[in-house]
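[Meeting: bench + compute handoff]

Bench side (C.D.) handed over the final construct sequence. Compute side (W.E.) agreed to return the predicted structure before the next meeting so the bench team could plan truncations. Sequence as handed over:
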Amino acid sequence: MNSIRCWQVDAFTDQPFHGNPAAVYWLDSPRETRWMQAVAAEMNLSETAFVRSRGDVLELRWFTPTMEVDLCGHATLATAHALWSDGLFRTDQPLGFQTRSGLLTCCRAGDFIELNFPATPAKMIQPTENLLGALGIESALVAVSKFYLLVVVDSAETVRNLQPDFGRLIQEKTLGVIVTALSDEPQFDFISRFFAPAMGVNEDPVCGSAHCCLTPYWAERLGKSNLTAYQASPRGGLLKLRLTGDRVVLAGQAVTVWKGECYC
């Protein structure tokens, strides 16, 4: 069997071992979904991306260790970085990926890579006692978006200090839970963390798709369309965000940690 070119890239960071790691596989022929899922379980990262050329189109799919997902920001950023860095495409050539969420485009903007993603605004709902208990908080504003629950708490310190009960959190009928607050550091507008035990990822270090929900929320609340965010996981990650109608432009940096070949 021919070898498959692959990389591991830390996304939404300019330093190795920070941000969110994603594996990227460049396929020269179709592979079964079952095989992709097995590879993602082997990698055991929050997401593994599989990309292949289909004529004029690049097809991109993302898998957690347990399931395929509809939208993933950091693995898209990692894929674009890998394809450009290894010379598969010119760095001045924008990339378009056909995905389960439609066409997603990436382009370079100085040292950053910009991703054009759909916005997923949230609508307010009443929080459940289980949700608040699982997060260890007494009160919060709670909303639901296309994919996730959005939980707005009183302070950045509360976000940083969260120690969720994942056994209870997985009982919520959602793929993931975003917890956010205004930043207490002037260089950021807001901070967040993201928990997704239902997808096999207790805490996602830096989640691009979560910011498709966070961006319209904070843009409206702060009255500005350009935002800077920090995801306050132990690894941490920086995102520059721009709301343009029903789209969100997410900008981040990326670092290749390793590259190699898969023979399976």
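W.E. noted at the follow-up: The chain has a mean pLDDT of 97. C.D. will use this when planning the next construct.
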